[in-house]
Amino acid sequence: MLEKKPKNIFVDGPISPVKIGEDIAHHQKKTNIGAHSIFMGQVRADAVEEATVMAIEYTAHQEMALAAMHEIREAIFVKYPLTCLHITHSLGVVKAGEICLFVFASAVHRKEAIDACEEVVERIKKELPIWGKEIFADDEYQWKGNRG
Amino acid sequence: MMEVRLMSYGALTDITGSGVLEFSIPQSVISAAELMSLLIERYPALEGKTFRIALNERFVTGEFEVGSGDHVALMPPFSGG
Asked: Which of A92, A103, B52, B64 has the most CB atoms within 10 Å of its CB?
């Protein structure tokens, strides 16, 4: 199930939990699926010295990010027998407690779904040209760094 | 006037500003080393920073040439998710 054209993964602002619920519901008609593995990244109110992260503002090189995501999708579908794979990433401001990344992998059996979901999340963090700016109160900010 | 279209991302926007910057080059084609020295001349704070360069939306490393009209993107380590 290789796709030719890069799919958009970006939404402005947070990813709605209602939308996530609807996405899951939409798969009820795909009755060959036996396992979904989902990952949701949530903006954490990290404390840095005396300030607390209020939100993260995401920016991306969208064209290159979508091209990189397309390559990852193709590689994942070659490596794992998935039924489907959906990815959503926020751009713009996402407040602490809100969802900024949603990865949804579905397969006939659980192992493929779980392994593919994990690998996609790791590759998104390493390979997609996306940057997070952690915003504190009083317009202070620092640029987010990803852990290895 | 020979120019490249320069964009930077993430923390590097604190140094260069965001959006597309018209960046003059002295001849129609310059080397990677010439690009780096012109960048550091214009934005001294770039010196010592870790970033990758994309030329016309493709990552480049080592030796490459940049021509007038090319798109040059400066990308610090990614931090999505």
From this structure: A103
Record: fold of B3-75: Ubiquitin-like (UB roll) (3.10.20)
What number is the average pLDDT over the span B8-17?
Answer: 96
DSSP element (H, E) containing A143: strand A141-143
Convert the pLDDT of each residue in A84-141 to its tens digit.
Answer: 999 999 999 999 999 999 999 999 999 999 999 999 999 999 999 999 999 998 889 9
Using the beta-carbon criterion (under 8 Å), do A59 and B9 form an inter-chain contact? Answer: yes
pLDDT recorded at residue A6: 86
**Is B62 exposed, middle or buried (CB count within 10 Å of its CB: 0-12, 13-18, 19+)?**
exposed
Across the interface, of A63, A67, A128, the residue whose CB is closest to B78 is A128
Domain assignments of chain A as residue spans, ordered by start: 10-143
Q: Determine, for residues B81 and A64 on separate chains, whether the beta-carbon distance falls below 8 Å.
A: no
**Partners of residue B14 in chain A, C-beta under 8 Å:** 143
Which of B57, B75, B78 has its CB closest to that of A146? B78
Tens digit of each residue's pLDDT (9 = 90 or more) over A61-87: 999 999 999 999 999 999 999 999 999
For B56, nearest residue in chain A (alpha carbons) = A64
- Which positions ≥6 away from A131 have C-beta within 8 Å? A58, A59, A60, A143, A144, B9, B10, B11, B76, B78, B79, B80
